[in-house]
Specification:
Blueprint: H1 2-11, H2 13-45, H3 48-54, E1 58-59, H4 60-67, H5 71-83, E2 87-90, E3 93-96, H6 98-106, H7 108-116, H8 118-122, H9 124-128, H10 142-153, H11 157-167, E4 172-176, H12 182-190, E5 195-200, H13 203-215, E6 222-226, E7 244-248, H14 251-256, H15 259-272, E8 278-283, H16 288-293, H17 297-306, H18 315-324, E9 330-335, E10 340-345
Parallel strand pairs: 4-5, 4-7, 5-6, 7-8
Antiparallel strand pairs: 1-3, 2-3, 8-10, 9-10
The structure holds S-adenosylmethionine.
């Protein structure tokens, strides 16, 4: 206390208060997130968090030996997570605290998506200096993006579309840009009579999806293939039995390459699958001023899209594009709380 008073006398109260306020805000809102997220990604990727979700306590010495990890690195990471209240500690054993368990369970999808884009954020300086170009010199990790978005959408968005499909009694569904097929696996688990097809551009995501659906025993009900949905005419004859199609957070990826690319795809869909609805879930971009008034996840979401050849647009632009594609009926549900919307296009 004496030393603190002495320091305040030396530097002045306003200066000391400014340091305290800015350190607290800067560390809590900025620097801490960077260090904590990197640590969490490493612990997830080496399997410690999964192990902690399965076992009540994990002896990290034994875990390090089993997984061939450097204990001198693992130990301080675990100690820091203990200090942050994410882990509990009992001798050499660590476990997830309630806060840590919630993060591992609820935030896992976002953490995976964030890891999927991490190389982009680590490469901002060469990207700024024109030494690297996204899409040429680096790319997001498609398997993590697909898995993460599936895990995250599983919490609200997939069940919402499942409800729409079930209410209308559709038995055969095509998911366009299906990632690792999480939505289709969920759909089959909820509806024993349904059969599904999925298409995604990323072979890594499809490979992971095929592994997951074999594990779930769904190989006779779900068929996934790696293909650009812009080339859907190449496979449309195999898909004529579909009664409806879904597309979750993919149209903004096509839109980056031009309105004509998106419109060509939408028009092909209408021509190849007449009378079959397309249910599109899309991000709806608010103006930057609105995000400044109500800051949240959306700021980061739109930032990583802007850096990686994606173009989410506002609600009026989505509607205008769907009209331009010739859909006669456009049913819209605006989920403003999630900066997203569901469009049922016929
Ligand atoms: C944000 S992820 C969404 C994945 C999944 N629909 C979901 O909601 O969890 C976007 C997906 O669209 C896929 N994609 C992007 N462009 C595509 C295209 N032209 N054809 C097929 N898939 C595409 C990507 O590979 C990625 O898996």
């Amino acid at each position: 206390m004496f030393e603190l008073a002495r320091t305040v006398r030396r530097f002045g109260l306003p200066y000391m208060l400014r340091l305290q306020k800015t350190y607290r805000a800067g560390w809590d809102e900025m620097i801490r997130g960077h260090l904590e997220t990197s640590t969490m990604h490493a612990l997830l990727n080496v399997g410690l968090i999964d192990e902690m979700q399965k076992q009540p306590r994990v002896d990290i010495g034994e875990f390090a030996a089993r997984a061939n990890l450097e204990i001198k690195v693992l130990q301080p990471l675990c100690e820091a997570f203990y200090s942050l209240g994410l882990f509990e500690r009992d001798g050499a054993a660590y476990s997830l605290s309630e806060k840590g368990r919630n993060v591992a369970e609820v935030l896992r999808g976002w953490l995976d998506v964030c890891y999927g884009y991490s190389e982009v954020f680590h490469s901002l300086e060469p990207l700024l200096r024109k030494q690297m170009v996204y899409g040429r010199d680096l790319y997001r990790r498609p398997d993590y993006v697909a898995r993460g978005s599936g895990e995250m959408e599983q919490q609200l968005f997939f069940p919402m579309v499942n409800d729409i499909l079930s209410a209308r009694g559709f038995r055969c569904v095509l998911d366009l840009g299906c990632g690792d097929g999480t939505f289709l696996r969920h759909l089959c688990a909820q509806n024993p009579d349904i059969r599904c097809f999925g298409i995604d551009l990323a072979p890594a995501a499809v490979e992971e999806g095929n592994r997951a659906l074999r594990e779930a025993g769904l190989q006779n009900r779900i068929s996934l293939r790696a293909l650009d949905i812009s080339k859907i005419d190449q496979v449309s004859s195999d898909l004529q039995e579909i009664e409806a199609a879904t597309v979750f957070f993919v149209l903004h990826e096509l839109l980056y390459f031009g309105e004509d690319v998106l419109l060509d795809f939408l028009k092909s869909f209408r021509r190849l699958f007449p009378g079959r609805p397309l249910i599109a879930f899309e991000a709806v971009r608010p103006p930057a001023e609105e995000l400044r008034r109500n800051p949240g996840i959306a700021i980061y979401y739109f930032l990583y899209h802007d850096l990686t050849q994606q173009k989410p647009v506002d609600a009026a632009t989505w509607t205008q594009l769907f009209r331009a594609a010739g859909f006669a009926s456009i049913e819209e549900r605006h989920l403003d709380f999630a900066r997203a919307a569901i469009y049922i296009l016929n």
